[in-house]
Predict the structure.
Amino acid sequence: MADIAVSPRKGTFFGEPTALGYLAFTEIWERFSYYGMTALLVLYMTQQLFLPGHVEHVTGFAAFRAGVEAVFGRMSTLAFASQVNGLYTASVYATPVLGGWVADRFIGRRRAVMIGAVLMSAGHIAMAFDASFLLALALLVTGCGLLKGNISAQVGQLYAEDDAPGRTRGFSIFSMGINVGATAGPLVCGALAQFYGWHAGFGFAGILMMLGLATYMAGYRTLTESTPAANRAQPRAKIDARQWRTIAALFGVMALSIFHSIAYYQNSNIGLIWINDHVDLDLLGFHVPVPWFNSIDSFISIVFVPPLVWLWRVQARRGGEPNEIVKIATGAYLAAFANLLLVIGCALGPRVNAVFPVTYDIILGVAFLYYWPTLLALVSRAAPPAVKATMMGCVFLTLFLSNTIIGRLGSLYEHMTPMNFWATHAAIAAIGGTLALIVNRPLGRLFHD
């Protein structure tokens, strides 16, 4: 797959290429819909869909549950909902590998993103009905597979291979778009679900995804690529021994990020269940919707981009900016500290003050900026051109593994005290940060060279 060629105009979107604006706003709408839906999902399953009177209406549910429990064993309603949430989120992040391969070899990245947006729109709309719940999950998983890795690869291709600072700025801005959508989605969809019912929140997410498709189509002309037939006619670039070492090193860094992801993304699974059951949500006569808590970390990941970029620039001028691996380790330690705050909150009493989950999500938002944009930028910069889109898809494969584990850990929640549950996640993140520091010198030297 030939790299995308971008219009030469400069300085038209926060000093970055014009196409970045369209890609960022497409991602805003896509993440708005995705996080709006996922903020409702585990609560919807445990409070309505999987209960008698509703679960009988879900097409294919009996066979689906029998298949899941054949692998993981018999589960309570809460445990099963956690496992389904984990499997769904894991699948969303597994399919970008296949989506990147399909785009690289057959249909091109622009077509892949557009088809993915259409499928995701249909999936969000199908979520508005009990009967089509499983179909909705399948459409969302397939659509996200075509969209996620390919749109991230397009961001990386806006920059020259040796423009590491520009590439990091581009992905930080792109990640800001992700977090704008991730902030607004739970707020709007959560409010609609509380005041008008679950299906109102899910249906609105579908409308937002269609806005994402319209935005991408508006910016279609700013991205060009060779035809799939021309790509197949060109000889595939061979990967030499040095590039294979780089690929292996990238997979090592990806593996280290799994520890952080487990500690981070549990906030949208059992984190919501724990808040609903143990946190005081009444404020001046208003009951705060639980999904709103999923907006906090995303909002922090927006407002902290400028000060964090400023800090890194100051460190660079002084010759002390941490490399990508050290930044990833820093994010993991921050995630560990955030989970320890929940341990403290649980220790103080059965009814936890809302300041603890709020602070937890604030710290997770900063931790996100240290590890996820950094990981995307590293893979985009260092991956061999012949497999760049596929490697970007593999980044999301780490979230497949993470969310599979998250779902399994969540199914054990009922058999642990909340304090022990969050202490376990703090330990997982701390282990990831420590391992990253251990391998920093050899891997960091390879990426620098």
In short: Confidence is low (pLDDT under 50) at residues 1-11.
